[in-house]
Amino acid sequence: MKIGYPCINRSIGCTSGRTFRLASYSDERLEETVRGNLRCLHAILRENLKGSILFFRITSDLVPFASHPVCTVPWQETFAETFQEIGRFIREHGMRISMHPDQFVIINAKDPGIVERSVAELRYHATVLDAMHLDGTAKIQVHVGGVYGDREASMNRFASKYAHLDENVVRRLVIENDDSRYTLADCLRIHEETGVPVLFDVFHHQVNPSGEAVAEAVDLCTATWRPKDGILMTDYSTQMPGGRKGRHAESLDPALFEEFLAETAPADMDIMLEIKDKEKSALRAVGSACRDGRWFRPAQSGHNDVD
DNA sequence: TAAAGTCAAGATCAT
DNA sequence: ATGATCTTGACTTTA
Q1: Of the four listed, A109, A121, A141, A158, which is most buried by Cβ atoms within 10 Å?
Q2: Are the C-beta atoms of A32 and A298 separated by less than 8 Å?
Q3: Is the distance between the Cβ of A155 and the closest atom of strand B smaller than 7 Å?
């Protein structure tokens, strides 16, 4: 079990997702931004290691406009060595990586243009992970997409689009139950049809349930991940007290988190904490997972290499 | 320098 | 048809 947080570190003082306006795009600006983003990403991972935070979601803004037609420079070649260096660091320390393209990636869209842009964005994400030479356990998580008034047809459309994705995308792609459209049961059905692993979002399952108890849900999702996918990834959050329904909590409630650990034991999984204060909560959660006994202890020599 | 306005991309629901 | 919300930050312009 590894614990992580998404994209942003609030204490280190740099961000790996710096961007700029499309209107001010230039190849030089892109190169300069990516160089800074990669340097920061490496710094964040080093900082995470100090706190035994071994799971991390890399921001989709690592390479701004990467899938936009305006960007034609071969950034993966320009920064090949830096990507490999970061990848080596990740492997050496047994870290797990995910990425989460945002809401604009809709594989099951009716509009072919949206599908095309979505596919380009997925290729970009796969290219980043490939450039780091990470294996198939580094995942790209997406929601199923729109319902468009016909859930059945839209789920089928997902399956048929999925069947035509590039292999280097498919080997990393996983779907996640969302908070308003596709439930866990929907995702499991899509798994039946396509084989795509299902990432379990605990909070979405609470907000948009389909009947399964949490422990049962974890077991059902676990069964959708093959050995080459690595162990189950779970997104964990709780309701912000007093906030609108579905709003993520500001900080981890250790009692609730430990209850989650207790009710899912002994299932093994990597947990992404979607909590607003980021690494602060992750550090506390590592403590909980450690006491629980399932936390991942990296080999002392650091030889988890697959080079 | 601080505040306000705006940003590649979508879906859905309220008005 | 239009705008707000999701969710949220941070870039960019304006005061």
Answers
A1: A158
A2: no
A3: no
